[in-house]
Structure formats: C-alpha cells, structure tokens
Amino acid sequence: MCRNLLFLLALALPSTGCLAAAAAGAAGGIYLTSRGAESVVEGSVDQVASRAEAVMSDLGIVKEGESTENQGDQHVLKGKKGDLDVSIEIRRESPSTAKVEVTARENLAEWDKEYAKEVLNRIVQKG
Questions:
Q1: DSSP percent split of the chain into helix, strand, coil, nearest 5
Q2: How far is it, in rounded angstroms, from Cα 113 to Cα 37?
Q3: How far apart are the first and last CA of the chain?
Q4: Sign of torsion over alpha carbons 25, 94, 88, 113
Q5: Crossing angle between the packed helical segments 16-25 and 2-12, to the nearest 10 degrees
Q6: Cα–Cα distance between 49 and 43 in angstroms, integer?
Q7: Full set of structural domains in the chain with CATH
Q8: CB burial class (10 A; 0-12, 13-18, 19+) of residue 119?
Q9: C-alpha neighbours within 13 Å on the C-beta side of residue 114
Q10: What is the DSSP string of 34-83?
Q11: Per the confidence metrics, is the pTM higher than 0.90?
Q12: Rounded to whole angstroms, how far apart are CA atoms 61 and 97?
C-alpha cells in the first residue's frame, strides 16, 4: 500500500526535490523481512551508525565487530546478546537517509524477527 502511494506521488511530483522530500517523509516505516527487520531512517550513514551503537549499548548487545565499505556508504555492526548474533547493516539511501536492516540469528535456521524489530525501532526513535 505504502509503495503504491509513493509510486503515485512520484508520478504526481514533477521535480526530483519534491520526490526526495516525499521519500524522506516515508522514512521510519519498519518492515519485517525473511531474516529480520528493515527501514529507511533519517540521517547519514555515520549518524545512524552512532545511534545504532548507542542502542546496542542500551540493550546490552556486546559489540563484536564493525566494518565500513564503499567509501562510507555502507556500515555494518555485529554483536552478541545471549544466544543471539545481532547484525545491523546501514546503507546510504540518499544524502539524508539510510536503509537499515537488523537481523538477530538464533542458530543456522532460526531468526528472532521481533527482537530485530525492537532494535530497529529504537534506532528510529533515537533520530
């Protein structure tokens, strides 16, 4: 439904500046994926990564690794919370937004989507 609305807005808005504003307004909706949760979040990759690290600390997720790729356009944080392996992938979507995917893996075949959604929701709220 939301994607259809964005498509209609894209057709109705003649300039790319308006389209960017419409897309930015849509940021914050959280969607469950096959392994976790994702959303487009307001802020640069660096800003969102800082918020994600703060959320990890707040939730007691022990940071185990971090990487930055594509000249800073992608940032990955990895951590552990009990038996869960938590991964937060942040990719530049636009100059003012980033796409964030959070996964919380219990084992090779099981994912805790609700926990991933909780982590992502806290990242969105810190914005």
A1: 40, 35, 25
A2: 6
A3: 25
A4: positive
A5: 160
A6: 9
A7: 28-125 (3.30.310.80)
A8: buried
A9: 0
A10: SSEEEEEEES-HHHHHHHHHHHHHHHTPEEEEEEEEGGGTEEEEEEEETT
A11: no
A12: 24
Q: How far is the C-alpha of 102 from the C-alpha of 14, rounded, in Å?
A: 34
| pLDDT tens per residue across span 21-60 | 333 334 458 999 999 999 999 999 999 999 999 999 999 9
Report the amino acid identity of residue 23. Answer: A
Distance of CA 36 to the CA centre of its chain: 10
Q: Any idea which residue has 């919380």 for tokens?
A: 104
Mapped onto helix, strand or coil, the DSSP state of residue 11 is helix
Q: How many CB atoms lie within 10 A of CB 108?
A: 5
Quote the pLDDT of residue 115. Answer: 97
SS3 19: helix
Interval 62-111: pLDDT, tens: 999 999 999 889 999 999 999 999 999 999 999 999 999 999 999 888 99
